[in-house]
Each structure stands twice: as C-alpha cells, then as structure tokens.
Amino acid sequence: MADSVASTKASLAPAQVALVGNPNIGKTTLFNLLTGLRQRVGNYPGVTVSRKVGVLPLPNGQAELIDLPGTYSLAATSLDERIVVDVLSGQVPGLRKPDLVVCMIDATNVVRNLFLASQIAELGIPMIGLLNQWDTAQKQGLQIDTGLLEQRLGVPVLPCVATKKSSASAVTEALSKALESPTRLKPIDWPEAVTEATITLRASMPKGMSDSLSDAEVHRLLFDANSALAERLDWEDVARRSAVKNARDRVQSGGFNPMAAEPLLQYEHLNKLTEGVVNRAGELPLQHSESIDRLLVHRGWGLAIFAAIMYVVFLSVYTWAGPLMDLIEWGKGSLQSWISPMLSSTPMLQSLVVDAAIEGVGAFLVFLPQILVLFFFIALLEDTGYMARAAFLMDKMFSWCGLNGKSFVPLLSSYACAVPGIMATRTIEDPKARLATILIAPLMSCSARLPVYVLLIGAFIEPQHGPFVASLTLFAMHFLGLAIALPLVWLFNKFLLKTRPQPFVLEMPRYHVPKFADIAWRMWESGVEFVKRAGTVIFAITIIVWALLYFPRPSAVEEATTQQFIATQGLTLEQAQADEAQAAALSQAIDSAYLEQSWMGSMGRTVQPIFESAGFDWRITVGVLASFPAREVIISTLGVIYSLGGDVDEESHSLQDALKGSTWHEGPRIGQAVFTIPVVMGIMVFFALCSQCGATLAIIKKEAGTRWAVFSFVYMTALAWLGAVLCFQIGNLLG
Amino acid sequence: MDATLSTLPIGQAARVKAYDQCTATDQRLMVMGLIPGVQVRKVRVAPLGDPIAIEFDGRCVSLRRTEANGVRLESA
After folding, report:
1. Which of residues 265-284 of A touch B (CB under 8 A)?
2. What is the pLDDT of residues A587-639, one digit of tens each?
3. Contact at CB, A109 and B58, closer than 8 angstroms
4. Which of A248, A384, A643, A689 has CA 20 to 30 A from A66's CA?
C-alpha cells in the first residue's frame, strides 16, 4: 500500500537525470548550456559536498538535471568521490535513484571514457552517451562510427560540442526520447571467478545488506584497495575485511590478481566492444597543448611565468576589489548617516539599526568584491587548463606536509582575505588536503591585519629603530603565519586528520579557450553561496558583539562622566555643550565610559589576567575581545577606549600618541608605559595568529562543518596567546 | 631491464610491465588506462624535481615519484 503511494508520487515528480563523466570533459559547460538560469547549488544532506541541480525543460514536461562530480571510475577513496556511487545507486537519503544517466564521453578518447559507463551499467540505470569535443576529435583526424557504437552498446550515442549553443536542442531531444523509451548498457560478462566471489561476498554480509546493494556496489568492496563505500555500510570492520579477503582469494584462484582484475577485464571487454569503431586517419600530430606546455611548465621559465601569473591574480584581488569595497563602505556610511537622524529620538533603536543591522549587512557584503575577482581568476585558470599545471609546478613545495600543489592558490588568496581563499579550496579534490588547507588558510596574513601592523610599527618601531627595521618587521609579520602553518599542517595530518591519503594523480587537460558564460556562472555561484550561507552567520555575530558593547548602559554612567568632565575642564554644562570641540570631547568621554561599563568592558577586565603574562592591560584586552568578529575593529575600539572617537585610522597621530602615553593605572607596573616593544611585538604576533574574523569562521563552518570551525578558533587563539606571551617574556629577558 | 616510471629518462617511452603493489593510486592509474602492455612516455619532470608528467593514449597525467617507483617497465 505504502509502496504504491510512493510510486504514484514518484511518477508525478520530474524525472531525475544524472550527468556523469571523467573530469575536465566539459560537463559543467553542458550543464550550464542545458539548464541556464534554472540551476541551484546546495549540499547533499548531511555532508559538505556541493550538489548542483538544474531544471531541464523538455518537449513534454521537465526533468531535473544533477551535475555529479567528474570521476574516472566508481571507485571512491573519499566522501566526495563516494557521492557519485551513492547518488547513482539511490542511497542518498531523500533523493531518488536517477531515471536516466547521461554519460559524457571524450570523443578523443572513447575507450578510456567508456570505463565509467561500463561500471554504471551494473547499476541498471538507463543511459545515453554523449561524445563530447566531437570537433576536436575530427581535427585530430579521428573517425568515429557512432552507428556502430550505438549498435554495440545498445544505448543511444550522439556527437556533442558542449561549447556550441546549437548542441542543446539535439541533446534535449535525445534525453526526452531516452526517458520515454529507456535503454540500458549491457554490463560486462564477468568470468566465473568474479561472479562467484561476488556471491561469496554477498553471502557473508550481515542480514539484509545484500538485498540493498547492487552488483556495482558489491564490486567496489571486492576490487577497491581503499573503498570509501565501506563507511556507508553497517558492517563491522574485522568481519568485513575477512569476508572481502575470502572473496578476493576466490578471484585469485581463478587466475586473476584481484586488485588489478577489474581494469584489465573491463579494458579487454571495452577494446572488443569498440573494435572498428574508432579509426585514425594518419599519425597523431604533435598536440597543441604539448607545445604550450613546453613553455608554461618549462624547468626554467615555468616557475617565472607561474610567479608572474600569481602576482597578477594576487594584485587584482587586492586592488581591483578595492574600489568596489570602498563603494560598499561608502554606501553603508551614507545609509547610516541618512537613517541615523530619523531615529534620534530612540537612541537604542538608532544604535541597533545603524551600528548593528546596517553594519552587519555591510560586514559581509564587503567580502563580495574579493570573492568575485578571485573566482573570476580561478574559473579562468581552471577552464583554460592552467590550474593543473600550477599544481604540477608547486606540488613539491607542499607534498612534504600533506598538502598538494593545489593548495597554493587558496593560500595565496588568503593573503588578501581568508574568506575567498577558503572558498577557493574547492578546487582541491583530495578532501584531506582540502581540510588541511582550510585549517591553515586563516593563518596567512590577510589585508585586515595590515592596519594593526601599520599603527604599531608606525608608533613604536619606526621612530625608535628606523625605516629598515620597520619594513623588516612588516615582512616578518606577513611571513610568520606561513612559517608556522606548514609545520602545523604536518602535525595535523600526522595526528588529527584520520582520513585516508589520496592518490595525487592529476590529468593535464588540453588547453582551451574558456567560455565567458562558464566564468560568469562560477563567479555568480560563489557570490550567492557566500551571501546565503555565510552572510547570516556574519550578520548574527555583528549583532551579538554590538549588544555586548552596548548594554547594560546605565544612564548613571553618562551623568557621572559629564560631571567629571565639566569639573576637570572648569566649565558649566552649558559652556561645554556650546563649544563644538568641548562637546565632541565630552561625547567621546561618554562613549569611552560606556564602553568601559559595557558587558564587553567587564569581560575585558575579567579576562585581563589571562593576558597579564603577555603584558596586555585591560584596554588592550577589551580591544582584543571586541576584535574577535573582525580584527580591523581594533583600531576604532582603541579610538573609543582612548576617548578619541571611533573615526580614527591606523595612521592617526592622535591614536599613536595616546598609545605612547598610555600607562598602567594599577598593579605592579603602575605608572610605567603599557606599550613597550615586547608588548607591541606581542600584540602584532597575537593579531597575526589569532582567529579574529567571524566571516572566516562562518565560511569554515559552511565548507567543513561546525566542528572544524570551532577547532580553528580554538587552535588559532591558543597559538596567538602563546605567541604573544613568548614575545613578551623573551623580549623582557633580552631587555 | 628493471626500470620504473621514476627512473625512465625524460622523453623516452616504454611499456608497462607490472605494478609492485596495487595501491589505490595504482588502481587509479590503471582505471585511467595505464594497464600492463600500454606504452607510456615520460614527458617531463617538474622544476622542483617532483612530480613527473607522463603520457599514454593521448592523455597527459602527473604523478609523484613515490607513486612512479611502483610502476615497473619493460622496453617498448
């Protein structure tokens, strides 16, 4: 009964069509071509693997097109790779098994690309084949007999050029036909040893498991050295291993090496199946890509060209985004000054709207320009085929600590801002290397740290030690994070990240001219995802911190401060209010007093003992605490604390002078200057290493999950504290 | 000849003889088509000495030396 209801429901829902194929064969281009604006990106339930679905209009009704990650085989060593098997076998909770698989096949390499199709055939899903890059194949002098191929495979096969708009109608028509009269690819006839091994393995499974698995899934357990599928099954490890070993012994006894049997048998089968299908006219000419590679990955110039390209990317993220970020800041400022007077009768509402809500929206919008610029370049580098070469050039630098060559671009981008940098880790296929890169990306010295360095170096280092030491300090601060990050990632990989090591086997795709639409899509996707998923968290953090800084706000504070102010200045209240400068000074003194009395202020006083060993007084401590949502806030917070107002900037002399004149009001160092060189160095090291960015934590939560966001926060903050304490203590020892 | 993909000189071609073990990486290479009997050419070595790039069946693939060590070759 329940079954029939479910099936009625299923028949009303749009047909599910999955798009699969090897990496770099233009799957995304075809997906964009077919679905256009009707696509959305989300995550698979429960995991942070992104899921792209689009609506595909068909002559009769519509279908949902699912873009699966590019893969060479169903063998999965990681969760990300496992998604393909899980989706195709209908094992993702809440998702139906697809009604049709569109298998994209590189027309220049038909046999190798059919490997995946032949594995999928065992799942029993109807299939059609698209011979993509048909134009390139023809240029290479390949003649492919599609009629013969269709006849041999038993499923429709059609030529396709995903980069040409005109391909869309033929593909849509074929899809629609295939949904109406589905045909299945005939799977390989396994030799008896494999069939029996499969039966043996099924027989030893826990009750009920065998019925829920297709042969394709059982073969993953049988053949794969390192199957991630095992994690999905509720099969105790020791029992599973021994059952798999038994089954492999059966394969072995048939005369096959069980670990190599699948590719050997599949290729034997496919070579027979495609005999006479592909004919080459003449010798293969020297590939276009090879001649470009001779220049771009040359032993000498390769690195120079790479450095030049990365310089352009970095500079662009840094500078192109600048005017747009200024525009957002300006828009935020104008909106604030426009709305502020309207709410002046209700000060709390005024502060909530102006200082919290508008500030909070601005706080995440301001990241958008950098994200868009970075993703423009990432799409360009990936779609042209250069990204794989960059990884090839850089791999050695990162492989020793467990990262790989693909970590370079995200880490470099993090020097501008960790938010786009962490989003860029999506280009790293290996989930372990990707997580490790996410964890260390925030240690790269981002542009928001610069104001702190400029303020402190300008106030304390440069006047005493000259410009050379000042610039050396600035460089050291930028280098510190990276120098700590790589050994740290080695430790993480050794002790913390327990996932399996991933093969770093990377295909160098052919170079080709990217499509503007694909690049635009990539930028749009990253922007929307950031605003939707990280925006809310950043907004919430801004509101919370605003509340901590605003409340409890007893009016007695204002009265007491005013009394004290007019008493010390020897004025009446009317005189103070009449004089513009005096009035401003009074309101700054009131703001400062409110800050000291706020929850954040009392937190600062409470936790100050923790920072005592780093030489921080309560003012620095409040500044540090208030900077946890966004480190650049430190400057304006210090401005308010020192009664200079929040509008100071890092080059403001009044703030520099206030810091220089700041002394201990209590405790053992009473009367002494707070900002000594060891303290100053300690603060800079603290800011270099600390996790003071709500946006970064929000993006880590989104990309890797809450657990890892908490972990980053804890380890970075602990590291920062340790760094500051070491600076202060060692600095004092050295005198 | 006891050459491996790692020791093969740049620009030279050979035939895959066997894999020492069949690790996940080796399996990935086999799935991509680098099965025993296939002709493979070493295209280049990265400027820092690792990884290496190989070509077979019109595919250009990069892999690390530690992985290339396990692919034994015989003369083409």
Report:
1. 267, 284
2. 777 777 787 788 888 888 888 888 888 888 888 888 888 888 888 778 877 77
3. yes
4. A384
Please give the structure tokens belonging to residue A211: 């019925």
CB A98 within 8 A of CB A18: yes
Q: Do B46 and A388 count as a contact with CB atoms less than 8 A apart?
A: no
| Residue A232 pLDDT greater than 60, yes or no | yes
What phi, psi does A128 have (nearest 5°)?
-130, 155
Residues on chain B bordering chain A, Cβ-to-Cβ distance under 8 angstroms: 19, 21-33, 35-36, 43-51, 53, 57-64, 67
Count of other CB atoms within 10 angstroms of residue A529: 21
List Cβ neighbours of A383 (8 Å cut-off, separation of 6 or more).
A512, A514, A515, A518, A519
pLDDT tens-digit map of A37-52: 777 777 676 666 778 8
Identify the closest residue of chain B to A288 by CA–CA distance.
B58
* CB neighbour burial string for A451-486, b if at least 16 within 10 angstroms, e if fewer: bbbbbbbbbbbbeeeeeeebeebbeebbebbeebbb
Which strand ranges, in their side-by-side order, compose the sheet holding B59-63?
A506-507, B59-63, B52-56, B39-45, B13-19, B71-75
Beta bridge partners of A42: A51
* Cα–Cα distance for residue pair A646/A635, rounded to 1 Å: 8
**Tell me, what's the pLDDT at A715?**
94
| pLDDT reading at A6 higher than 60 | no
Structural domain boundaries in chain A: 13-180, 192-280, 301-447, 448-494+611-735, 555-597
Rounded Cα distance between A402 and A434, Å, is 10
Q: Superfamily for A13-180?
A: P-loop containing nucleotide triphosphate hydrolases (3.40.50.300)
A531 pLDDT higher than 90: no
Which secondary structure element, helix H or strand E, spans residue B43, and what is its range?
strand B39-45
ipTM for the whole complex:
0.95
- The DSSP secondary-structure symbol of A132 reads E
If you count residue pairs, one on A and one on B, with CB atoms under 8 Å apart, how many are there? 127
- By the 8 A CB rule, do A700 and A422 touch? yes
Q: How big is chain A by its Cα radius of gyration, in Å?
A: 31
The 10s digit of each residue's pLDDT in A159-197 is: 999 988 888 999 999 999 999 999 999 999 999 999 999
CB atoms within 10 A of CB A308: 11
